[in-house]
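User: Can you help me understand a structure? I only have the sequence.
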Amino acid sequence: MVLLLHNTHNSVGQLGLGDEKARYSLTRVSALENENIVFVSCGAHHSLFLSQSGQPFSCGYNQHVYLSSTY
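Assistant: Let's start by predicting it. Here is the structure, written out as tokens:
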């Protein structure tokens, strides 16, 4: 299970929750519940997750297809 605390407007889906609603408290990223996440990096317009097996996951602004491994 991944709990993500992020102070953001979530305007481009960078929280990975399937919407663009702002969140200002711990929020469960249910898409990653079955993954053993060992590293998280959050930017202004994206979030990156790395599983213990080395699988990367990403979400957020992807107009230029920089987030090529999304969930």
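Now, to help you interpret it: The chain has a mean pLDDT of 78. The chain has no helices and five strands. Let me know which part you'd like to focus on.
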